Amino acid sequence: MTRLAQIAFAVLVVATLAAFFVTQRLKQTPRLVQTLSVTEVFSPHVAFRKAGIRIRLKRTDDATVSLLDEEGDVVRRLTRNRPMRAGVPVQLLWNGRDAAGTVVPDGRYRVRVGLRRQGRSVTLLDEITVDGTPPRPLVRVRRPEGARGPLIFPLPGNRPVRFEVTNATVVGTPVFRVYRTDLPRPKAVTRLAAAPEATTGEWRGPIVGARRPPPGTYAIVAQVRDRAGNVGSSYPFGARPRPDDPAGGPGVTVRYLAGQAPPRAVPAGSRVSVFVDSRRRAYRWRLHRLGQTETLARGRSRRPLLRVRAPRGPSGVYLLELRAGGRRAKVPIAVNGPGRQRVLLVLPLLTWQGLNPVDDDGDGVPNTLTTRFAGGAAGGPVRLVRPFAGRGEPPGFARHESPLLRLLDRPRQRYDLIYDAQLAARSPRYLDRYRGVVLAGNARWLAPRLGRRLRAYVERGGRVFSLGTESLRREVTLRDGLLVRPTGESAFDVFGSRIDPVKEEQVDLLVGDDGIGLFEGGDGSFSDFDGYEETRDPGRGARIVASAQDSAGRRVIVGIRSGRGLVIRTGLPAWEQRMRNPNVSALTRRAFTIVGARR
């Protein structure tokens, strides 16, 4: 070993001994600042809650108390050179904000006390944990092993719905509520019993004001509090589920009786399979044509698969009525008569299912193409094949398609029936088999390929009669039995016409011009409608050949010549509900005749 190395080693030994003696002396020195209490955890987002720091000085001094972050930087000074008497406790409060008044990030913070007279500072051993993040509880309804989709209530044997809460430490007594979520505004229908720190619970079905909940979509929601006082709720009122969350969800679908018909028009005289969910009870069934009271077939069963024979005769919609335990449901069945007719009547199945408030995946939120919910999914996905909520009729069917179908039966008009989803799957030139197409009701969404085919059909000379409003201006993709990627409303429909949004104000219309005889059979007056949809521009290369307009010249009922074809649009939201009006019924029949006439 060289002499330089020996000197360095000796210096290191001396320094180590010195540090040891200094440390021992500091241990034996009375503490300059005594910590009486420091809040361990708190949230700056909880009202009226602050972190408390209670200290006492050994000797009288002027103290500066600061908060340090994990990097040792000062984020806030609570006092500056404040006189403090020896032995007198001092209480300080911190609201979790920095010197600029901004809430500090979550993390651990230390307290440093500077003593001006003694020229020293002391950092307290106790830390303050700032936690402003609400808990994120997850509610999972217990389902039979291997079951997919929502849990259907009532359960066999009148068993209760059991659930558990995960992903959060429950402090105190949680709050468990049941919400109905298929209403325009979700509503709490009952509060469930919960024990302190409970992570499980059950719902036997009763709600406020009723022993049995009405059919619909429900969600069990847990509200919990953490150590910092933050309150968090489970989905759908709290954080949205993530892909890595456990399977299942908080959703419960209450259903007593429902049926599901094929998503296609069936040939007259064929066997039709209808799936019936009667909760394992026996049920009665009856088949009749829409708008008629004559019973065509009836029976009793308890099987989930009911096979009935489609009536022989002209095309139309038939209703399969189900009854079980005081409950009733209807299942519409589209039936195509023999032969081929001149007019194809298209039923808007995509729109029906897009508005059908049914929970497909058990997350407690109805799967529709318009869903807008706190943290919820927006715009699908939606299953194309599923029962219709409520009493079984498609959304809007009683207001739109049913009045049209009843009118066409008096006297009976001949047509073929098809669903829009079924039509989108046919060959590109399938529409050329027909002289005209009638779009029943509000075709709010169309498959992109069907929109293109309708436009090409009109350009080649086809005729289209559209009775709905807000129609033909949105698209939705049909993929693997699911409706996905719905678009917003365009200012242009599939034929290129520019149409204003529906205005909800009273309007009276008079015929302005009529180059195709559209208004024959009436007096040309359409009064007291509570809303209208103006056709602003017929589109490139198109022209309006018939119209009824208001006093300001806004054209609402229009006939548009586009290419070699024709498009007729009513433009009035309540059109079908006014079918008993002589002018409305006359124009509807006249338009049906025009689109089916020889070209």
The structural domain count equals 4
Main β-sheet description: 9 strands, mixed
Distance linking N and C termini: 115 Å
Overall mean pLDDT stands at 91
Major sheet strand order = 28-26-29-30-39-38-37-34-35
What does this structure look like?
The chain is mostly beta strands and 599 residues long. The protein folds into 4 domains: 30-130, Immunoglobulin-like; 138-254, Immunoglobulin-like (Sandwich), CATH 2.60.40; 257-331, Immunoglobulin-like, CATH 2.60.40; 340-356 and 394-596, Class I glutamine amidotransferase (GATase) domain (Rossmann fold), CATH 3.40.50. Helices cover 12% and strands 37% of the residues. It has a 9-stranded mixed beta sheet, with helices on both faces. The chain is elongated and about 115 Å long.
Concise description?
The protein is built from six helices and 39 strands.
List the defining traits of the structure above.
elongated; mainly beta; 4 domains; 599 residues; Immunoglobulin-like; 37% strand; six-stranded mixed β-sheet; nine-stranded mixed β-sheet; 12% helix; single chain
Blueprint (SSEs and pairs):
Layout: H1 3-28, E1 33-38, E2 41-42, E3 51-57, E4 61-68, E5 74-84, E6 90-94, E7 107-115, E8 120-130, E9 138-141, E10 151-153, E11 161-166, E12 171-180, E13 187-192, E14 200-203, E15 216-225, E16 231-233, E17 251-254, E18 258-260, E19 266-267, E20 271-277, E21 283-289, E22 297-301, E23 305-309, E24 316-324, E25 327-336, E26 343-347, H2 349-355, E27 382-383, H3 401-408, E28 416-419, H4 420-424, E29 436-439, H5 448-459, E30 463-466, E31 477-479, E32 482-484, E33 498-499, E34 507-514, E35 525-529, E36 535-537, E37 543-549, E38 555-562, E39 565-569, H6 582-596
Parallel strand pairs: 2-8, 10-17, 19-25, 26-28, 26-29, 29-30, 30-39
Antiparallel strand pairs: 1-3, 3-6, 4-5, 4-7, 7-8, 9-11, 11-14, 12-13, 12-15, 15-16, 15-17, 18-20, 20-23, 21-22, 21-24, 24-25, 27-32, 31-32, 33-36, 34-35, 34-37, 37-38, 38-39
